[in-house]
Design a protein that fits this description.
This protein has about 260 residues and is an alpha/beta fold. The chain contains 8 helices and 7 strands, in the order E-H-E-H-E-H-E-H-E-H-E-H-H-H-E. It has a 7-stranded parallel β-sheet with strand order 3-2-1-4-5-6-7, sandwiched between helices. Strand 4, helix 4 and strand 5 form a beta-alpha-beta unit. Helix 1 crosses helix 8 and helix 4 runs parallel beside helix 5. It is globular and about 55 Å long. The two termini are about 30 Å apart. The mean pLDDT is about 95.
């Protein structure tokens, strides 16, 4: 299927590895030029080089912290009129809500709610004027099925979801859609880090922890960044103009509900 987005420009946040990189690679495969960003310059530059090697698109690598005004300004200077925006940021740490300070909450809200809103605000009017725009927010399955130790993430990402629910119905008239992808367990560095921590705490091998966790998912495995990227690319396509304000769960069937 030709997704009809070859030659367009996309900003993909936190895209040096993991799900963000999966989205960037999938868009590049469709001929989309990229501005990728992450904090670690070396990893980001390597990702950019890999994408350039495997595609013919233009790739700009902008190292910085997208959760800061300076970081956002650098990215928007490199691509002031994107056709596609993929919002992504690492989630805040787990814990007990009794221990979270106001500073903890402010950091979570800034990274996982306010930064995406600021980026949307910066680009959506231009998208509407050009009569094409796709915004995809990478959030979490915890938006649909909250996890108690991830309260910081639950709150911040739910706030973003509520905000988007309102404006997505206003922008679609101009062929600008805003949707969210809600990942469950995917085979990323973050998941592998969790396995390592559990392995040390229980005194068992990482592979044993991995197999146990995979067996609890109806799919019997974890998702891949390539699968996630393919879903993102479709939502960014010209074929997806009738989908907006939606929260699409990718979790191998782990959520046991119908809605």
């Amino acid at each position: 299927m030709d997704l009809g987005i070859s030659g367009k420009w996309a900003i993909v946040c936190a895209s040096s590895k993991g799900l963000g990189r999966g989205c960037a690679e999938a868009l590049a495969a469709e001929g989309v030029n990229l501005v990728i960003t992450a904090r670690t310059r070396e990893t980001l530059e390597q990702t950019a080089a890999d994408i350039r090697k495997n595609s013919s698109v233009e790739v700009k690598a902008i190292a910085g912290d997208i959760t800061t005004e300076e970081g956002r300004d650098k990215v928007l200077a490199a691509c002031p009129a994107p056709d596609i925006l993929v919002n992504n940021a690492g989630g805040p740490p787990p814990g007990d809500y009794h221990d979270w300070t106001l500073d903890d909450w402010n950091k979570a809200l800034n990274a996982n709610m306010l930064t995406p809103i600021e980026l949307i605000k910066a680009v959506v009017d231009g998208m509407r004027a050009r009569k094409f725009g796709r915004v995809v927010n990478i959030t979490s399955s915890a938006v649909k099925a909250p996890i108690d130790i991830l309260g910081l993430s639950n709150g911040a990402r739910a706030g973003l979801t509520g905000f988007v629910a309102g404006i997505a119905r206003k922008t679609v008239i101009d062929n600008v859609t805003i949707n969210a992808l809600l990942p469950g367990p995917f085979d990323t560095d973050r998941l592998r880090g969790n396995f390592e921590a559990v392995s040390k705490a229980r005194g068992v091998s990482i592979e044993e922890v991995r197999k146990e966790r995979a067996a609890t998912n109806p799919a019997g495995r974890f998702g891949t960044a390539e699968e996630f990227g393919a879903a993102c690319a479709f939502l960014c396509s010209d074929k997806a103009g009738y989908i907006t304000g939606q929260n699409i769960l990718l979790d191998g069937g782990a959520f046991p509900g119908t809605l």
